[in-house]
Amino acid sequence: MKEIERKFLVDHNSDWRAEAVESKQISQGYIPTLPGATVRVRVKGEAGFLTIKGPTKGISRSEFEYSIPAEDAREMLETLCQGRAIHKIRHVIHHGGHEWTVDEFLGDHDGLLLAEIELGSEDEAFDLPKWATREVSHDSRYFNSNLIGAETPPTV
Amino acid sequence: MKEIERKFLVDHNSDWRAEAVESKQISQGYIPTLPGATVRVRVKGEAGFLTIKGPTKGISRSEFEYSIPAEDAREMLETLCQGRAIHKIRHVIHHGGHEWTVDEFLGDHDGLLLAEIELGSEDEAFDLPKWATREVSHDSRYFNSNLIGAETPPTV
User: Fold this and answer.
1) Are B63 and B53 in contact (CB under 8 A)?
2) Domain A2-147 has what CATH class?
3) What tens digit of pLDDT does each residue of B100-114 get?
4) Which is catalytic among the residues B8, B16, B30, B131?
5) Residue B66 catalytic?
6) Is B64–A82 a contact, with Cβ atoms under 8 angstroms apart?
7) How far is CA B107 from CA B76, B110, B111, in A?
8) What residues does each domain of chain B span?
């Protein structure tokens, strides 16, 4: 599957939170890989996931995601992801016929809010919610895989 | 799951092949990782597998294996494993109440035969078949993950 995402910062003073239809805590980490692929381990609510992603090409990348037991995911997070994980609450928002997610980071990156929309093609049109501000799709500091163990990038 | 394996070279002049009860071709590669974990992609017959293994401790290591579509595995082998794969025929042999596998390497490591037995504990007793020769359990040159892109280690 090809994943095409656009990513934006979120206005902290807006009422985006009132639009959330679902909110689930996510803990995720990465098995340390060489550049070219990422291996993500995620616990989302009571479900586990293992996700392999290829290199980013423009705003597309190949993605292979599999459901795994949450217990396996927790053990891999602890033992294989160098004990470093990202913790966030993922809020789902329906806007303009698209599904958006707003990730509210906890812990090390407290204060960071990242909105994402997944598109069917690189040129698909979409309506930008008023609470979405600066686009950071191409800014590698905001890649989840780069946030681990790094300084928090600008939150506005 | 803990994986406890012992690994032996095989006498090329013996009749081990007559004892095989199953033989299947395997193609496998590794997503390049930093030391500490391996991420193996495997196509075995018409099935695909993704296997995460932790670091080897003695002859034990943690292992998480998941069935995936063979099509995904083939695509990952081609696009994410740097085009390098190991190809081998895995023969299953029943001996002394245990299941052994003999891997007959093809391509780059043609001529290499590796027998393996999986044990329930590190000190479990087993009968060594007469065709099994030198033990190489602790020799990292024979780890599948190290055979990729490397010289073939001694085959006797």
Assistant:
1) yes
2) mainly beta
3) 999 999 988 999 999
4) B30
5) no
6) no
7) 20, 5, 9
8) 2-147
